[in-house]
Specification:
27 strands; 5-stranded antiparallel beta sheet; Glucose Permease (Domain IIA); mainly beta
Length: about 280
Amino acid sequence: MKQVFIKPAEGIYTSPYGMRSGSMHYGVDIANSSSNVPVHASAAGVINKAVGGCSNNGSIGNTCNGGYGNYVIVRHSINGKTYDTLYAHLQSISVSVGQTVNQGDKIGVMGNSGSSTGQHVHFEIYEKARVSQSEAVDPMPYLNGDKPTVSYHTYDGTWATITITQKANVFKNVGYEIIGQLEAGGKYKVYGQREYAADGTLFYNVGSGYVHHAYGTIANHHATVTSTINTYSSPNGAIKRQLAPGTYKVHAAKDGWYNLGAEWVKADQVLVTKN
């Protein structure tokens, strides 16, 4: 699995996130003295802002676009969670608002616009839709691949089980802090599965903690759809979309309805099997 967020430009880190000369620096700076250094989208998303109009001869205290100079904000949706990334002090911008970008797509050229003393890109990351700069978090755990861990499925403990095939460590979180062990032959309800973003390793949540996928075999219930049906936001809720024929994981059941993750279907319209 590729890293969720990547370094947005080639260069050296020249200033970290944190206090700097008595004031807060809300991102990391990446500098490169080469000409026309491209700045890339750190992750796939949609251009939320593309703000230009600043000259490329910045200086400390330059207030063009609030000191950011020419900048771009990309909005990302990762497993249903919103992130914003901001790229500042650009020489030029290569994208427009509403444009979809893939990870690594060029969004501009590194520059020296706004409150800046040399060619670099100032990179910020937000764990929500950006409202103010003070909400920015340290980008380095993301750029190092330590965050985020990405959830793919949650279950209610009824519709998936794991049989342990060899003694397995139980982790407090995905890949971190061993808190116990499970013996071979044990069968446990599965409440979810998570993938560690740094290397794609899959772990199953067995209630007390997480176990590595290689230490057991998983059994799921599946719903087979034979003709196009409606899906719903909740049992008896609003129609979300039409679901094409196919086989889908069942995450839970309630009052004649099956949950397929982000949507519900009527039980009498599908055939449920365990495999």
